[in-house]
Every structure is written in structure tokens, then in C-alpha cells.
Amino acid sequence: MSIKPLKIEGTEFTPYIYLKSGCMQIEGRAILEDSIDFFSPILKWTEEYIKNPEDKTVLKINLQVYDSSVNRRFIELFNLLEKITTQNKKVYVYWFYDPDDSISLQKGYEFASVYNLDFRFIPQRFDNTNDYDIKC
């Protein structure tokens, strides 16, 4: 039995979220007043998902801008996703970054060095001149 998808529409300050079995997307801007509250349904969904994950899980993180509180939520999310790898299943994290934003790229590298997840780094201009479509 697969888990019901979760969709949260993005706003000027909150990212678009789409989670379905095997495919997770976080896109847009994340300038959150309360990142704990915003990420709560995402983390709850992920806790359910990891009980019976697909053989391959893809997480696409494509944020133009995000605040430091989001990094703490990513830590929680990556901790959950790492549990999938103990079941001999793969988790791919596609970390999109603006080539002019070395801080975002560095943060992605830091996460990749800590977690047993397969990180892929993809340069992405946020003016949509090179919009990559990573299939889940």
C-alpha cells in the first residue's frame, strides 16, 4: 500500500512541496517565520514513508533562497531518509544551486559529507534559462 501524496503550494516566502512515494520535491523560496511548523507535515509524511519506501527515492531540493532555520529541518529530513539506506535501498538528493551562490553549494557539500545519501549537485540559474527535469 503506497502512502498518500502531500502537496503544499508555494508562496512568496514558502516553498512548493510535493511528496509522493519515491519522489520528493522542495522548490522555491523558504523564508519561514516558523520552520518547525512548516516542516511538521513534511517530516510526519517522511516518517510514514520510510516504513515502506520504494527501492529508489529521489529528493529534489531547488531553493532560490532559504534561511538558516531550514538547514535544521534539512538535518531532520536527511536523518529520516538515511534510515532508508539501511534497508538496502537508494536515496538520491538532487541539490540545485545557483552557480553564483557558493554558500548554497557549500552547504550542500556539508550535508553530503555527513549523510549516507547519494547527493548530486546541479547548477541552476533561477531565471529558468536551464530548467532541469529530474525524473523520479
Q: Which labels suit this protein?
A:
136 residues, alpha/beta, Transcription Regulator spoIIAA, six-stranded mixed sheet, 30% strand
3D architecture notes:
The protein is α/β, with parallel strands linked by helices. It is built from 3 helices and 6 strands; from the N terminus they run βββαβαβαβ. The protein has a single domain, classed as 2-Layer Sandwich (Transcription Regulator spoIIAA). Strand 1 and strand 2 form a beta hairpin. Helix 1 packs parallel to helix 2. It is globular and about 35 Å long. The mean pLDDT is 92.
Structure in a nutshell:
This protein has 136 residues and is α/β, with parallel strands linked by helices. Helix content is 34%, strand content 30%. The chain has three helices and six strands; from the N terminus they run βββαβαβαβ.
Let me know the largest β-sheet.
6 strands, mixed
| Annotated CATH topology | Transcription Regulator spoIIAA
Helix and strand content put the structural class at alpha/beta
**Spans of at least 5 consecutive residues with low confidence:** none
CATH architecture: 2-Layer Sandwich
Radius of gyration using CA atoms only: 14 Å
Relative strand content? 25-35%
How many separate domains make up the residues?
A: 1
Q: Strand order across the biggest sheet?
A: 1-2-3-4-5-6
